[in-house]
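[Protein data]
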Amino acid sequence: MSSDDLYDELDIVRYSPEHGLRKIEDPVVRETSLRVFVNDLEVVVIQSLKHEVRELALGFLYTECVINDVSAVKEIEVNDGLHAVKVITSEEITQGKVPTVRSITSGCGAEVSFINPMQSNLFKILHSKETLKVEVILKLMRKLMKASKLFMETGAVHIAAFSDGEELIHVSEDIGRHNCVDKIIGWKLLNNKSNSHLRLILSSGRLSSDIVTKSIRGGAPIVISHSAPTRGAIQLAKDFGITLIGFARGSRFNIYSHEERIIQ
């Protein structure tokens, strides 16, 4: 799907000191309500781009601990007419494992600063001895911020990527920063990529605690963002062995946890 399929050209009025008020065509991103099912049980409605919906659905269900055995997933069906994705799995999915159907907007997800005790066994401390050079962090972030044609054309999406510490392996874009991270983790799961080849997550958006929990589930020991972290995100990163980096812009960045992985 090209970026042209993800936005519309709308007539608007723009003001600038050079031209005053004038009518122009402006690209505006389309968003859709994506319904996600596990077998026949509806789990969530996500406001998202109509792009990489398989990856989004699988990534969301995995990072939210609704499913844990990805090898048990038999099929992922997309129903364009209903704007729905059904993940069919042989894993036992009990009603208690699935939250009441809720809607997730593009602005934020479930802002939490703790791991649900009922799911704590699914979150592993990352004892990675990976190291990353300062110059590589800055280079990868520059690449990330130029990687989305849709962002360059509309300014209305977030971007996230998995990297092997040398190049961007996969880049996803969406109106929600949580969706971007779910998409790259879903892509990883669909493509059977091992943690050893996916060393870090890069993001354009704010690093809240739920972004960190998704990163823990994705097995990425280093998380880097163009934006700021929250206090809860920093505490989770410290507890679970994640190097958390924010404000990676230009020639500088801040390290909030496990700085031993970053070398000059």
Residues 244 and 256 are 5 Å apart (CA to CA). The two ends are 40 Å apart (CA to CA).
